[in-house]
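ok trying again, last paste got cut off:
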Amino acid sequence: MIQRTWAVLIAGFVLLLGLLLLSSDGIHHANDTASYLQSAANVAAGFPPVGVRTSSIGYAALIAASRALGLGLWGVMAIQTLLSVLAARALFSLGQRLHSDHAGFLAALFHLWNPDIVRWHGYILTDSIYTSLVVLVTWSLVRAWENRTLTAHLAAMALVGLAAFTRINGWLLVPIALYHCASVLQVSAAKKLLLVSVCLAACAGAGLLALDSAILISETSPLERLYNGEVLGKIGRWRIPMPAAPAGAGIAEAPMYIASHPLSCLRLAGTRLAVELWHVRPEYSALHNALIASFYPLMLLFSLWTMWRFRAEALVRLCAVIAGAHLLLVSMTFPDHDGRYLLFIFPLIGLLASAAIGSIARGVRPPMPGTRSP
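nice, full thing came through this time. structure:
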């Protein structure tokens, strides 16, 4: 039965991916693709990546390796597709731990059969791989906490490092993973808090090193978007009124600006968060937006129910923290115009929602042994 269900899931996934590739004439290039390709050429030649792509050196190395093996960009797409299948298998395992086989299959289905996620496998961008890595990091951290072996912890941290050097958002996972692994240590809460503080400081420093200085001074920087009240990713697409910033305001003036106008800044952050979670976009067709409006809010409600019902579970808390960290970053910067940032955490939302659906369909089941938080 399990093998037959997996065969159906994979067949549907391959069919959906094939249809999307046929409708878009093969592999897609987007605005950032050229810099990834140039970074890959630089890495292959022994030079640094291009500009801000230093933070995606892992992806540049993948492109360079695929080219060196003669596989070209189709090899990159194949790796992205394979990682997505592995992520689905990890979601199934996590769904089993959280509720049941049925919940596991639902979590895998929400990942493999979601066109919004599948379409990114055909792009030469970091989004597909990073989405899969978020799932694999979550799965590896749960296994590390349960097994409590050095090998499991090292494997989990290796995946975290891969995520951090695939996309800069991956640095969000570093302090989360370190604290989660440290939770098995028999130390006081104060020492754990100190460890998290050190991790956050190290993460912030590494993230700043990965960012090109041009990001901090360009018109598209998070600071400029804050002062201008930018909501969506495309400049000028949607703004809300913000108090005037001092002339030439930069990083040094940002804390004082936020402290002086907390309500305006919170309204901007809240608007960005609502837009990201609503997920409807002007670029989408009316049918696409209608499907999103009828599906994503329901999934969010189901996931919130699971967060409340199984709030004592380490897996649920871990998913909530990872999702919350990514949403916090969106509220501080912007929701992208094509809605991809929500997709980084949607597999975890689908995992939590699957447990709620399973509970409603079969009755609330007690958590499996050994999954409670320390």
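cool. Residues 89 and 108 are 7 Å apart (CA to CA). The two ends are 35 Å apart (CA to CA).
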